Amino acid sequence: MSRMNYHHLYYFWRVANTGNLTQVANEIHLSQSAISAQLKQFQQHLGIELLTRKGRSLILTPEGKQVLAYADDIFSKGEELESLINKGLPTQHRHVSIGVLSNLSRNFVESFTLPLINDKFATFSLQTDSLENLLDGLSSFKFDIILTNHNVELGQQNAIWHSELVSRQAIEIIGPTKPQRTRKFPNSYGDATWVLPSQNSEIRSSFSIACAKFQYTPKIKAETNDMAMLRLLARDSGAFSIMPEVVVRDEIANGLLHIQQSLPDAYEHFYAVTLSKKRVSPHVQQLIEQTKS
């Protein structure tokens, strides 16, 4: 068999990942007919059918899925190399680009980066954003790793992301005064007011489950999707709140806030996410292992 045409492989890779010929044509500024013709030549050259049409979409054949796996490796490595060259860093230094979910605990992020802070040969950058934008940045090699409290592996059709659990922290009921006796949820909070995370968070879901289990209806003073703001509200409102201890570590140490009790069977999970098909660099893997230990 003659040498493979990598231009054809690239067009196949783009179309296979989108399933939309029109979109790819617009993105790479070629006509649909030109791309279609080159895909046909590529399949004829290989002697196998890679794509079939279903309605307006192109669907991968079993053979096409195998070819795509190799194409993912080839072009992902190329983009990774280009990103590395563009950084232009001296080889003795290590730089880690970290994406952080916008509402993640800043204290947890600081704990995660502490080994980098203490490493004189390491530098790092932090950027907060939505989960969708962070995953896009990870796939385009803008980030080496992203930190989130969502397991993005769940529901994947293809193994694009790898979520590694780096910390599981108990969700605590936090209050402004030191408890004088052992508290028990929900009996000890009959007249309490609450400042809570927003409805779409893992912490709030755990709280809602506990409330439903004990048929407890909390009096909610405020809600927020920003953990930094929740920390301030817990400190200044006089209300009870729920969060991992790490979020208000400094306030607890200074006696401004106090742990009342752990919310029964409730945890927040922190994940480090990398690309499943990209080899994780040794210093990034070491960073993950240090956080887990």
From TrEMBL:
GO terms for molecular function: DNA-binding transcription factor activity; transcription cis-regulatory region binding. Pfam families: HTH_1, LysR_substrate. CDD domains: PBP2_LTTR_substrate (cd05466). Residues 4-61 form the HTH lysR-type domain. InterPro entries: LysR_HTH_N (IPR000847), LysR_subst-bd (IPR005119), WH-like_DNA-bd_sf (IPR036388), WH_DNA-bd_sf (IPR036390). It comes from the Bacteria. Keywords: DNA-binding, Transcription, Transcription regulation. Belongs to the LysR transcriptional regulatory family. This is LysR family transcriptional regulator. It comes from Alteromonas genovensis.
